[in-house]
């Protein structure tokens, strides 16, 4: 059944569907399966990135929907991200244009700086020296941001933002920007709430999108950590509210004022995860969820360690 997803309206004029489809690690036939099912169900917010190596396939699928008149471009909210090897101001525009072209659209709704870390320009995603050390570049965050601002002037993207930035890096951009960041995308779930960073962003008037709101299945190798979907409280609340653990986890993000994105290629799961707008977790239960936090982030950015930022 088609769901009208609520729109998160932000102080800076951004209007973004409160739940979106992440596309990290979606490959091959899974892309069209996931996207076709998602669009049928009512998903309109698609989160992409140069890094994910699948923008061309996503573009093929979106183009079929748009050309057949089943959907209008302005009904979609498409995000992409500037990868670390394109931080040099001279490379920013062509990087954005490549994503726009691959996605077969005329503009992006949101273009994010994927990480606050510049790597040397390279055909490889993470350039390394002979000792396997990451080759960083000394491009200042602010210089990259100023080049991203020009993309808005040129109509390549409507809004710009940042991903995986900390408070110091956000402040650095805020103190020098002409166009304020319209979004911060970071990891956040009940096991890793990242609440201080969220509070900081909200205080600065920047809305927040949470990735990995379901915790992460990739944590199974950590014997000392109970993954979010196996936390007893999540199951207890799922029974109480007659919902699935995933629905509880997503609703937790929504009730904290966040936009949430998750990845699934399963039509049933995609449908199930939209059934989160017909109930509310009580204040008391939200407090209990807040207490889970085991401080375990799923995405560590290990290859980027050692950069001055």
TrEMBL record:
Alphabetic keyword roster: NADP, Oxidoreductase
Cited Gene3D superfamilies: NADP-dependent oxidoreductase domain
Domain NADP-dependent oxidoreductase: 19-293
UniProt superkingdom: Eukaryota
Residues engaged in binding substrate: 114
GO molecular function: oxidoreductase activity
Site (Lowers pKa of active site Tyr) location in chain: 81
Alphabetized SUPFAM superfamilies for the sequence: NAD(P)-linked oxidoreductase
Membership in a protein family: Belongs to the aldo/keto reductase family.
Protein name stated in the entry: NADP-dependent oxidoreductase domain-containing protein
Active site: 52
Pfam families: Aldo_ket_red (PF00248)
Species this chain originates from: Hymenolepis diminuta
């Amino acid at each position: 059944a088609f769901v009208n997803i609520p729109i998160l309206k932000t102080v800076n004029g951004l209007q973004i569907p409160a739940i979106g489809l992440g596309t990290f690690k979606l490959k091959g036939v899974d892309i069209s399966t996931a996207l076709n099912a998602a669009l049928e169900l009512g998903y309109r917010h698609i989160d992409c990135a140069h890094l994910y190596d699948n923008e061309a396939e996503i573009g093929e699928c979106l183009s079929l929907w748009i050309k057949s008149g089943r959907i209008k471009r302005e009904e979609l909210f498409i995000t992409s991200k500037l990868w670390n090897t394109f931080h040099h101001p001279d490379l920013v525009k062509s990087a954005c244009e490549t994503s726009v072209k691959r996605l077969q659209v005329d503009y992006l709704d949101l273009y994010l700086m994927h990480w606050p870390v510049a790597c040397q320009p390279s055909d490889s995603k993470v350039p390394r020296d002979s000792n396997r050390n990451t080759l960083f570049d000394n491009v200042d965050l602010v210089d990259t941001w100023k080049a991203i601002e020009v993309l808005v002037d040129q109509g390549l993207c409507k809004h710009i933002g940042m991903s995986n930035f900390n408070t110091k890096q956000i402040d650095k951009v805020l103190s020098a920007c002409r166009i304020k960041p319209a979004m911060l995308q970071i990891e956040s779930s009940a096991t890793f709430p990242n609440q201080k960073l969220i509070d900081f962003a909200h205080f600065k008037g920047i809305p927040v999108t949470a990735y990995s709101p379901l915790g992460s299945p990739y944590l199974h190798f950590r014997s000392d950590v109970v993954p979010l979907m196996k936390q007893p409280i999540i199951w207890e609340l799922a029974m109480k509210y007659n919902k699935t653990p995933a629905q509880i986890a997503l609703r937790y993000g929504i009730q904290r004022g966040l936009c949430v994105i998750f990845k699934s290629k399963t039509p049933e799961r995609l449908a199930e995860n939209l059934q989160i707008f017909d109930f509310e977790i009580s204040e008391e239960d939200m407090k209990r969820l807040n207490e889970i936090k085991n401080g375990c982030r799923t995405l560590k950015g290990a290859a980027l360690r050692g950069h001055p930022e």
